[in-house]
């Protein structure tokens, strides 16, 4: 709907203005033929504010593309903060590094290249300290698996956000899953999330310049004072997938 897009532009003009680093990032991505599926400016600003509300010092992103959302997220971090973003496509990773460098964020943000599931398992095996915020935005088929692995990189209070969970309402269509594995993957993930005792969650639907879609938001739960899982850096066992 045209009015939704126009209002999105209006909100963006007021509160999510892109600077040179963000516009140049989008420009270079377009030149390189990358798909135009970065978050919108308004969603970028929303994620930026969520990161600040969460007091995030360490953020993990799954699905980098050209680094557009990574710039919004990394800019929410304190000076000594850290963002790790995972990307399977070497060309995307290269463009993302260039875009992050132009935004003066290469000291804060690191692009790790490879299939995300393997990289997540490496982080877990390496005993990576828990992240304060995790943004899931890679292949939709694997969201449930990414969520399960994300829980192992979380602490009670970690904010997990996942993009593209509405898909213009196709998640409501019982047949869509059969023909579109991405919609099936999203529905599998949101079912897991809804039944997950280890996280409190909801979803928000968006309309705007990118059509009708939405984000899922989850806060990883503690297990109550005195429980063996209540320690500050205790990683909850993943029981949700
Ligand atoms: N977060 C970005 C958009 C990400 S688009 C932004 O808003 O700016 C999804 C990205 O996930 C693509 O770059 C795609 O190459 C990557 N991707 C797809 N499958 C993946 C996988 N298995 N592991 C890691 N990255 C993957
Ligand atoms: C697609 C992926 C995204 O992350 C997105 O925001 C929009 C579309 C896609 O794969 O079609
Ligand atoms: Mg997305």
Label this structure with key terms.
seven-stranded mixed sheet, alpha/beta, binds S-adenosyl-L-homocysteine, single chain, globular, 241 residues, binds magnesium ion, binds 3,4-dihydroxybenzoic acid
Strand order of the largest sheet: 3-2-1-4-5-7-6
The low-confidence parts are 226-231
**How many β strands by DSSP?**
7
Distance between the termini: 36 Å
Helical residue percent band:
25-40%
**Number of DSSP helical runs:** 9
Q: What is the element string, with H for helices and E for strands?
A: HHHEHEHEHEHEHHEE
The rough form would be described as: globular
Instruction: Name the bound molecules.
Output: S-adenosyl-L-homocysteine, 3,4-dihydroxybenzoic acid, magnesium ion
| CA radius of gyration | 17 Å
The percentage of residues in β strands lies in 15-25%
The whole-number mean of residue pLDDT values reads: 94
Write up this protein.
Helix 6 runs parallel beside helix 7 (143-151). 40% of the residues lie in helices and 19% in strands. By secondary structure, it is of the alpha/beta class. A 7-stranded mixed beta sheet has the order 3-2-1-4-5-7-6, with helices on both faces. Mean pLDDT is 94; it is low at 226-231. The protein is built from 9 helices and 7 strands; from the N terminus they run H-H-H-E-H-E-H-E-H-E-H-E-H-H-E-E. S-adenosyl-L-homocysteine (SAH) binds at residues 37-39, 63-65, 68-69, 86-89, 92, 115-116, 137-139.
């Amino acid at each position: 709907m045209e009015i939704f897009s126009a209002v999105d532009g209006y909100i963006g003009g007021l509160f999510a203005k892109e600077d040179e680093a963000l516009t140049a990032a989008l420009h270079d991505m377009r030149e390189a033929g990358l798909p135009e599926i970065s978050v919108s400016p308004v969603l970028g600003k929303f994620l930026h504010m969520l990161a600040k509300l969460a007091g995030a010092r360490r953020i993990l992103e799954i699905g980098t593309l050209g680094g557009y959302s990574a710039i919004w997220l990394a800019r929410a971090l304190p000076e000594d903060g850290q963002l790790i973003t995972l990307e399977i496509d070497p060309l995307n990773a290269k463009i993302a590094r260039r875009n992050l460098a132009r935004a003066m964020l290469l000291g804060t943000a690191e692009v790790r290249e490879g299939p995300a599931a393997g990289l997540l398992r490496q982080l877990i095996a390496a005993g990576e300290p828990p992240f304060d915020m995790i943004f899931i935005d890679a292949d939709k088929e694997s969201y449930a698996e990414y969520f399960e692995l994300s829980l192992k990189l979380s602490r009670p209070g970690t904010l997990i956000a996942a993009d593209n969970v509405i898909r213009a309402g196709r998640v409501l269509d019982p047949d869509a899953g059969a023909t579109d594995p991405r919609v099936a993957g999203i529905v599998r993930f949101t079912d897991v999330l809804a039944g997950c005792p280890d996280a409190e969650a909801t979803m928000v639907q968006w309309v705007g310049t990118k059509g009708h879609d939405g984000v899922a938001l989850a806060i990883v739960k503690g297990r109550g004072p005195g429980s063996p899982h209540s320690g500050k850096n205790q990683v909850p066992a993943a029981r949700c997938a």
